[in-house]
Design a protein that fits this description.
The chain has 412 residues and is an alpha/beta fold. It folds into two domains: 28-138 and 294-360, 3-Layer(aba) Sandwich (D-Maltodextrin-Binding Protein, domain 2), CATH 3.40.190.10; 141-292 and 370-410, D-Maltodextrin-Binding Protein, domain 2 (3-Layer(aba) Sandwich), CATH 3.40.190.10. Helices cover 48% and strands 16% of the residues. It has helices spanning 2-25, 42-55, 71-81, 95-100, 108-111, 146-151, 163-174, 193-203, 221-237, 243-251, 263-270, 307-317, 320-330, 338-341, 344-347, 350-359, 371-386, 392-410; strands at residues 28-34, 59-65, 87-91, 125-126, 129-130, 133-138, 141-145, 181-186, 238-241, 255-260, 277-280, 291-292, 294-300, 362-363. It has a five-stranded mixed sheet with strand order 2-1-3-13-6, with helices on one face. The chain has a five-stranded mixed sheet with strand order 9-8-10-7-11. Strands 4-5 form a two-stranded antiparallel ribbon. Strand 1 (28-34), helix 2 and strand 2 (59-65) form a beta-alpha-beta unit. Helix 8 crosses helix 9 (221-237). The longest helix has 24 residues, at 2-25. The protein is globular and about 70 Å long. Residues 17-23 have low confidence and may be disordered.
C-alpha cells in the first residue's frame, strides 16, 4: 500500500512538472509588419522588441519588414487573402481604406484613457471610430538660409511672421542672382506637391470642406488667394525641381527658403553640412499658420486572435520613453506622445522645437477612402496653375468638381 501511494505521488509530481513545462513553453506570437529597415533605426526597434519579450515571456513578436515601394500593395493582398498579420504599421492615409473594408479592429475603447496623452488621433479616426494609435508623426516647417538672408541685407534676427514678409524676403534673396533663388518650388511630384501647397492653403484660412464635411470648397475665395500666392512665389523667385533636387540646392546654398520635413535635419547631420540654418513655423496672414500633418499608425487586424497581446505591445512601443529613444536613433522630431515632446532631447535643440510646435499647429487631410483620388485632383490643380495650363480659379474649380463627384459617388 505504501509503495502504491509513493507511485501515485510520483506520477502526480511528474505530471505537474510536465504541465508546468508545457505552460512555460506556450506563448502567443504576434506577427508585426513594419517599415523601419534603415540600419540607423532597425537595431533600436529590435532592442525594444527584446525588452518587451523579456518583460512579457508569454508573448513573442515576430517582425516582417516592408518597403515603401511595395508595402501597401503587400498589405492589401494579405488582407484580401485573409493572411494579414496581427498588427501593422500603416501610413495615416491608408487608415480609411482599410477601415472601410472591415480589416481593422476598432480600438476606441482601448485608447480612450490615452486620448489626452497623444497627438494625431484625427489621423486614425474614421466614421467616428479610432482604428489605430499614433506612433511617429510627420509635418513640414519653413527652412531658411541665414547666410543668404544676410547677403540680401536682411537682419540676422529676421523671422518671417507673415506670408507677405516671407515673399518680400524671398524676392530680396532672388535679387542676389548668380544662380541663387529665393524659393524652392516643388515640380509635379506625386504625393509630395500637395504637402507643400496645403500648408499655404490652410494658413490662408482656406478649407477643403465645409465644417459639416459635406461640401468641397477648395475653390473658395481664400483657396484662390492661397494658390495665387503660391504661384507668385513660383513665378518670381522659384527654383523648380523635385523634393530631393530642392533640398540639394538648399544645402548647397542656392535657395533662401524651402518647406521640408525633419529628414532634412538628419541629412545635415549625417552629411556634415555647414549651413547657417533657420527653421520656423509656416507663416500665415497671422502667425503662426498651419502645416500638413501625417504619420505612421499602429493598427490591429480585426481577425487576429492575439488582440490583447498586440495592443499591449503597441502601448509599450509608443510609450514616452520609447518614443524619445526612437527619435534619438532616427535623428527625428516627430513623437506623438505629449510627454515625449517635452523631453530635453527636443527642448534643447531649437530646430527640433520648431517641429514639435508645428506638429501641434498642423492639419490632417480627410480620413476618406477616396483621399488618394482627391489628392490627385489637388495636385493636378496646383500643377495646372503653376505651369500655365489653367487659370488659378479654373484649376481649383476643376478640382472642386472632381472631389464633389467622388463624395457624391460615395453616398449610399
Amino acid at each position: 500500500m505504501l509503495r502504491g501511494n509513493m507511485c501515485h505521488r510520483f506520477v502526480l509530481v511528474l505530471l505537474s512538472i510536465v504541465l508546468l513545462s508545457c505552460a512555460t513553453v506556450a506563448k502567443e506570437t504576434v506577427e508585426w509588419w513594419q517599415f523601419w529597415t534603415d540600419p540607423g533605426i532597425k537595431p533600436t526597434i529590435e532592442a525594444m522588441i527584446a525588452e518587451f519579450e523579456a518583460a512579457n515571456p508569454d508573448i513573442d513578436i515576430n517582425v516582417t519588414d516592408l518597403t515603401w515601394a511595395d508595402g501597401q500593395e503587400k498589405i492589401v493582398i494579405a488582407f484580401s487573402a485573409g493572411t494579414a498579420p496581427d498588427m501593422l504599421e500603416v501610413g495615416s492615409d491608408w487608415i480609411a481604406q482599410f477601415a472601410a473594408n472591415g480589416y481593422l479592429a476598432d480600438l476606441s475603447a482601448q485608447i480612450a484613457p490615452d486620448s489626452g496623452k497623444f497627438k494625431g488621433w484625427g489621423l486614425a479616426t474614421y466614421d467616428g471610430k479610432v482604428y489605430g494609435k499614433p506612433w511617429i508623426l510627420g509635418t513640414r516647417v519653413l527652412f531658411g538660409n541665414r547666410d543668404l538672408l544676410k547677403r540680401a541685407g536682411i537682419d540676422s534676427t529676421f523671422v518671417p511672421l507673415s506670408l507677405s514678409a516671407l515673399q518680400g524676403a524671398a524676392l530680396m534673396v532672388q535679387k542676389l542672382g548668380n544662380g541663387v533663388f529665393g524659393w524652392g518650388s516643388n515640380t509635379a511630384e506625386k504625393h509630395r506637391l500637395y504637402k507643400k501647397f496645403l500648408p499655404i492653403f490652410w494658413s490662408f484660412g482656406a478649407q477643403l470642406f465645409t465644417d459639416d464635411n459635406r461640401y468641397c470648397i477648395i475653390s473658395s475665395e481664400k483657396g484662390i488667394a492661397a494658390l495665387n500666392y503660391y504661384k507668385r512665389l513660383n513665378d518670381t523667385c522659384g527654383y523648380v525641381a523635385d523634393q530631393r533636387g530642392i533640398e540639394d540646392a538648399f544645402l548647397d546654398g542656392k535657395i533662401g527658403f524651402i518647406i521640408s520635413g525633419d529628414w532634412l535635419l538628419k541629412r545635415i547631420d549625417l552629411e556634415h553640412r555647414k549651413i547657417n540654418l533657420m527653421t520656423t513655423l509656416i507663416p500665415g496672414p497671422k502667425y503662426p499658420g498651419r502645416s500638413f500633418l501625417g504619420g505612421e499608425m499602429l493598427v490591429v487586424n480585426e481577425k487576429t486572435k492575439n488582440r490583447e497581446a498586440a495592443i499591449k505591445f503597441i502601448d509599450f512601443i509608443t510609450s514616452p520613453a520609447n518614443q524619445v529613444r526612437f527619435c534619438k536613433a532616427n535623428r527625428s522630431a516627430n513623437p506623438s506622445s505629449v510627454e515625449a515632446q517635452a523631453d530635453p532631447y527636443f527642448s534643447g535643440n531649437p530646430h527640433l522645437v520648431t517641429f514639435i510646435k508645428q506638429i501641434n499647429s498642423s492639419v490632417c487631410p480627410p480620413v476618406d477612402p477616396d483621399w488618394p483620388l482627391m489628392e490627385d485632383a489637388i495636385e493636378k490643380a496646383v500643377e495646372d496653375a503653376l505651369f500655365g495650363r489653367r487659370l488659378v480659379a479654373t484649376a481649383l474649380r476643376d478640382a472642386q468638381v472632381k472631389i464633389a463627384a467622388l463624395r457624391n459617388h460615395a453616398k449610399p
